[in-house]
Amino acid sequence: VRRANPLIGNQPTMNMFRQRLEQVLNQVSRIIKTPVIPDSLNQLNVIAGKPLMNRFVFTICCRNQRHKLLRCVASICEQNGRHDIGVAVIDDASEYDVLDEEESILHKHKVDYCLVKNLSRKYAARNFYNMIHLLVPNNDSFLIELDGDDYLFDKDALNILSSAIEQGALKTRGNLVVDTGSEIKRNVFLQEKENCNAGYPRNMTKCSGWYHLRMTQRVVLNRVEIEHFLEKGNNWLISTHDLSVHSRALELARSRITQIDAEIYAYDLSGDQHDSIILDEGEMPDSWEYGTYLLQDDYLFKMYIPLFEEPRFVPSARIGEGLIQEIF
Known about the structure:
This protein is 30% helix and 16% strand. It has 328 residues and is an alpha/beta fold.
């Protein structure tokens, strides 16, 4: 055997071989990245219900938000009109049980549901990807995103959204109020609301893709490439996935995007159990300088497909790190 393989027993040659192999592997790793492996349905800890085929599916990602989650689910069940709705909830490894009462409420109101309890943190991007690809398999469904601490502000929200669909909408955005815990504030994110130029979806100054209420048909979200859910190193995004995913969804929906003027979403910033922005003591949301809560976050630049405030070139459908070289 030793005569058949000159590397065996020849330590200097073996060291050179290992060094050269390491160089080749490093070069290849820069070209071909190890793809992230998405979850399968049997890997999810589904504690109640099954994947949903309803026309409207509310997708709720939550963590440690028991009382606010109850309010969120109640606002769905209190909607006016008769609509085919389902509720998908992914609890991202809360420190205590938050789903027991939700199942009871949904069952009482005869609302279809699928409840998942993560045994370890997966974060919003991976959870939303699982919503799209595992929990809502029907391309005709419309996914309505609700943060677990937020709620529907108008009991006619579904009637309003249904009307938009009948007029051909594949995607809607806006409008919201802010719940500070002590009052309801309007026109807080007014500039973000007005920044709705879908021709520049990755330009945060021209298009605020995260703005609530976000309803998108599943056939659109299903076409959003997995890179939009990832960091540059092919890890799942742990925050700001809504900016990345919906910038692409706006591109895919093209001209079939409807702006909702009615105040149908309540964005809760009270307490310490919310998904987004933490107010300093005495600070009110309308005192923020536009964009600072996003642009001061270095995490934006860890996205596989980056966002910019004023890019010279709009990436459009281009995917991958190569677009960075084109921009700069």
